[in-house]
Design goal:
This protein has 402 residues and is an alpha/beta fold. It is built from 13 helices and 16 strands. The strands form four sheets. Strands 6-5-4-7-11 form a five-stranded mixed beta sheet, with helices on both faces. Strands 14-13-12-15-16 form a five-stranded mixed beta sheet, with helices on both faces. Helix 1 crosses helix 3, helix 6 crosses helix 13 and helix 8 packs across helix 9. The structure holds zinc ion (ZN).
Length: 402
């Protein structure tokens, strides 16, 4: 066989393998016959690839089902312990590191709260590196068993010759984050914007499952979004698409952390909400202060006014997404988005209805994320999983080097 033919056969095998692995990953356990029907691959191809995957320990048999009039059919599933992945959420209020197995069951977690506006690159890199060692130790997993690390960060992540993070509100300008993290880990790294990693988590496992067109809104201290069109993330020319928090809702309005005025984030981000309220609240961090503000809705006219305004601005921001992108679903997540949505989703929906065109609004579900405030870390951990399913793994990590 010529080298070219050999390469073609190799590519075809890899494609079949990726198609089967992905199909089984999202719907299991299933029999070889189910997989053949679902993927359109011939029974012989399915058998060949599955034999390979079983030999490698990636797929295991998990019982059997009776078939009509024939032999029982073996059910197949992914072996969750084949490998592990780590998801990191670099948020504005904390760094969170979580260790998952291949089927995304959590095995260990480490949390490092950040002081307000304490976002020095060395502080963040230190927290991530400490967290990686902590989850491996607590989970009892050797670094050699980790397929990769995904990191979700605020700001724009540019994937050029080296990964650069532009976090204007974070005070980060062209930070070579991958290179900096290399000082503390030899494991494969994937870095992306936190709202984008959260949207992948909701799309794979949560409120976005099955949607082809969705926008996932992340509200924490600030606001961001991930836009899914035709089942894929919309990134733009330099990956900065979906900087929803810095779209303008009031020309010449409140000053935003980005330097502009009237941005959505300057009204609906937790930092901005607490700032607009302007009075002391119990709790020593933003999360407990925002929860206290929401709890005082019924007893404080000022709290009610600030929160009603927040719901209106959020509705306007969502209406803009509906008119621009015609999504099937808009999913509200992030710790602050979930706190606000829990209490105010009807008011947010009403404001979105008022400010969007009737036809696209009628076709859009607006709901809360299903995966809770950990969805950014979970989503970050899907980055190495995606690489694994697509059959383009990084180099296997060096043994014993976390
Ligand atoms: Zn802004």
């Amino acid at each position: 066989m010529s080298e070219r033919k050999r390469a073609t056969v190799r590519d075809l095998r890899r494609d079949n393998r990726s198609v089967l692995l992905t199909s089984l990953y999202f719907d299991q356990p299933r029999s070889r016959q189910d997989l053949s029907e679902a993927t359109g691959l011939s029974p012989a191809s399915v058998s060949n690839v599955i034999r390979e995957l079983i030999q490698e320990g990636i797929v295991v048999e998990a019982g059997s089902v009776d078939s009509e009039g024939g032999r029982p059919r073996a059910l197949l599933q992914i072996n969750p312990g084949y490998g592990y992945v780590i998801g990191v959420d670099v948020g504005e209020t904390r760094v969170r590191v979580e260790l998952f197995d291949l089927m995304m069951t959590e095995h260990a977690k480490a949390d490092y709260p950040l002081a307000p506006r304490e976002h020095g690159v060395d502080v963040i890199v230190g927290a991530v590196v400490t967290g990686l060692a902590a989850v491996l130790a607590n989970g009892g997993i050797d670094a050699s068993r980790v397929l990769g690390i995904g990191v979700g960060v605020p700001g724009i992540v540019e994937h050029g010759p080296e990964v650069l993070v532009h976090g204007q509100t974070f005070g980060w300008e062209s930070i070579p984050l991958e290179r900096l993290l290399r000082s503390g880990t030899g494991l494969p790294l994937d870095i992306d914007n936190g709202a984008k990693t959260m949207s992948q988590a909701e799309l794979w496992f949560g409120a976005g499952r099955g949607a082809q067109h969705a926008v996932v809104c992340l509200i924490g201290s600030g606001a961001g979004a991930g836009i899914i069109t035709n089942g894929r993330a919309h990134r733009g020319s330099t990956s900065s698409a979906a900087e929803w928090g810095h779209t303008t809702v009031t020309a010449g309005g409140r000053a935003c952390r980005c330097g502009s005025r009237g941005c959505l984030e300057a009204y609906v981000g937790a930092e901005a909400i607490l700032d607009r309220y302007g009075l002391p609240l119990p709790g020593d961090d933003q999360e407990s202060a925002l929860a206290a503000l929401i709890n005082s809705y019924a007893t404080s006219a000022r709290a009610a006014e600030v929160l009603d305004d927040t719901a209106r601005y959020l509705g306007v921001g969502i209406a803009n997404l509906i008119n621009l992108f015609n999504p099937e679903r808009i999913i509200l997540g992030g710790w602050a988005g979930l706190l606000l949505g829990d209490q105010m989703l009807p008011a947010i929906r009403a404001a979105a209805r008022q400010h969007s065109l009737r036809h696209p609004f009628a076709g859009t579900l607006i709901e809360l994320g299903h995966l809770g405030p950990d969805a950014v870390a979970l989503g970050a951990a899907t980055l190495p999983i995606e690489r694994f399913l697509n059959g383009r793994p990084h180099q296997r990590p060096r043994r014993g080097f976390a």
